[in-house]
Each structure stands twice: as structure tokens, then as C-alpha cells.
Automatic annotation (TrEMBL):
GO terms for biological process: protein folding; response to endoplasmic reticulum stress. This is Protein disulfide-isomerase domain protein. The lineage of its organism: Eukaryota, Metazoa, Ecdysozoa, Nematoda, Chromadorea. Keywords: Isomerase. Belongs to the protein disulfide isomerase family.
Amino acid sequence: MTDRRQPTGCEIQKPTGLESEYKGRDEPYGIIDHMKELAIPAVKKLADAGSIDRFMEKEDVTIVGFFANEDSADFKAYSDAAEILREDFKSVGYTTDAKALEKFDAKPDDIIIFYPTIFHSKFEPKSRKLNKAGATPEELVSFIRNHCTPLVGKRTKENLFTRYNKLPLVVVYYNADFSLQYREGSEYWRQKVLKVAQKYEDKYRFAVADEEQFEDELRKAGLGDSGLEHNVIMFAKDGKKYPMDPKEFYGEFDENFEEFMEKISTGKAKPNITSAPVPINNKAPVRILVALNFDQVVGDESKDVLIEFYTPFKCGACKAFAPKYKELAKKLKKTQPNLVIAKFDANANDVPPEFPTPDFPAIYFAPSGKKSTPIKYGGDREEQDLIKFMELHAVKSFQKKLKEEL
């Protein structure tokens, strides 16, 4: 959780005219290297069927567009979709080879998502296909994002925000290692997950994950020393986490998982909420938010709320911003009674899903009337820039200045 990239706030114009946020290294050489990458089309031309076979990913999806030529509007839409997705999907290609279309049972303008061979199962197709004449880039992006995982794939720190960000999600944690040496054992348990998952695939997404890689996630859900060989957490849409309680589920995994999913699907399971203690005295200029008081403070419709999500570990940008944020809060405390400036330790508390935090510090503004659709701040972390941002979106605060401008 503490090794996330710190944002640069930089947007780069692509050769296609589309824009994307730069998420790389916050230094000139990093930006230059990224601009060089953008000069290369996001979609790779695949000459024939053999090229497609070699292009296939071993542990991730591969996306291939099949076209009669490169002059059609559908090809242009697919290319634009690839540009939109280039940060999240690296294996996106296309072919105009007639024999390749025949081999892969494709028609012109088909978009096919191929699942990696190691995750094939009898419970699902080996690929997903879309053929929609006149599809917009946004429709293609939606199709790819909605079908970018097999029924039970592997969730990792690398694909956490790009493949498994759609909820509700059920994750089974064990020594999940699909390298050649350990594949047989890992697949044995994945098959057991599949048997249950196929019954609930209309309501939930499923994944397996390596327990060591997500040790902190298990600990925060109360499963750090559960004693179980397989742990399970269901991540709900409202941000709550439902762990498979080892005190209740202590039998064989097959039986445990089946019973747990039955309890989840019937609403009988209890959530686990990770929260730091609620502060006793919380009257400082920067209010302290924790998971247990978040809804009470942020959900107050009589106030606009600015929130900094931070982590106290390995985040130089968080440390540098802290004194500036404190000074901002001091300055506005007396003049803006309807404004709350707060901070939230994302390492010690469950972060609400309406406030995604792939980078730290992450700053959101939740004005009155927009508590469920907060506005993320992407500008410079300077006092005047933040004030201008709040003035632009304020509902209950900064009203005197707004009236003066009118």
C-alpha cells in the first residue's frame, strides 16, 4: 500500500489528440521517456496468425482487433480505444490478415479478448468477442474493461486498480503461484474456487491472490493470523469488507467457501471495518478523519469538506505537503465556518470506494450535495491553487467572495 506512485498532475497530449494523465516518474527524463512511448501507436500490427500466437500474454489478457483494412471507421475507433487504455493494457494488437481471421474464427471488425491459457476452465469461454459496427471508442473501452478478467484470475499489486477494481469482488488468498514449478498446486485450489464461483458469477467477480503479497490487506481485515490455509474476503460496493471468519469457518476449504458464499449472498455475513480510534479532541484546524467518523463528518450537508488522503510511510510528497496543508487550514478556519479541512490516514483506515487513492497524497473536495461524487484535485499543492479550486466548486463555503464576484 505504501509504494504507490506520487502524482505529477501532468497531462500529455497524444498524437491522436486524446489526453491522458502522466503516471510515471516525477522528473524530466521520466516524462521524456513517456512522450517517446506515446509516439508509438498503442495498438501493434500483427502480420499473421503466428504473430498473434507469439503476442499472447501468459498471465494477462490479450486484445486483438480483426479488420479487412486500416481505412475503416471501426479501425479508427479501435485505435482510439487502445490509446485510452494504453496505460492499463499493454498487449493490444490488430491484424488484417485473411488467414488469421479464418484461424481465430473472426469476422472483419471483431474485437476479441483472449484469456491466458493457464486460466482457462470448463466453466467459461476462452475468449470474449464483440462485433458492433460503428462502436465508439468509449463503447470499446467499456467492453474491454467489463471483460478483462477470466472467471477466476489472479489479483496482484500490479493489476489491483486496472483489472480488479469493479465490485463486489471475492478474493481467495493462499500460496497462489502460477509459475511452472508451482502451477499444479495453485491450479488445484483455483479449480475448487471455480466450482463455487460459477454459481455466483452474475453477482460477484472472483480472483485468487498470493497471501504474502497481500499480507497487509489480510491483517487489516482481521485475518493476519487466522490459522487458515485459505483466507477469503468479499469487497462490497459500499467499501465494506466481509472476511471469512476463522472462528466460524474452520473446516475444509471446499465446505467453508461454499457456506461463506451462501452467507454472503443472503446478507447474513458481517463486515470488518478497519479504523484508527476516533479522536477524543478533534478541534484542530485540520480535522482527523478515521473510518468510523468519516460518514458523520464528510456526510454533513451543511459543510463543504476538503480531504487529504495520505500515508505516513515512504511518501515524501505527503511529508512535504503536511505543513502547507496545516497553514491553509489555519488561514481558513475563522473565515470559512462552513468549510472543513481534514486528513485521512489511508494506511490505518479503510478508504471509502468513492475516493480512489492510487497515488498519495490524494486530495478530494466533497461539497454539499455532492458527497457521493467528490471532486479530485489535480493541480499544484499550493495554498492559492487549492483555494481557487475550492472557490470554483464550493456550495456552502466561500459564499461572500462569490457574491462579490457576482
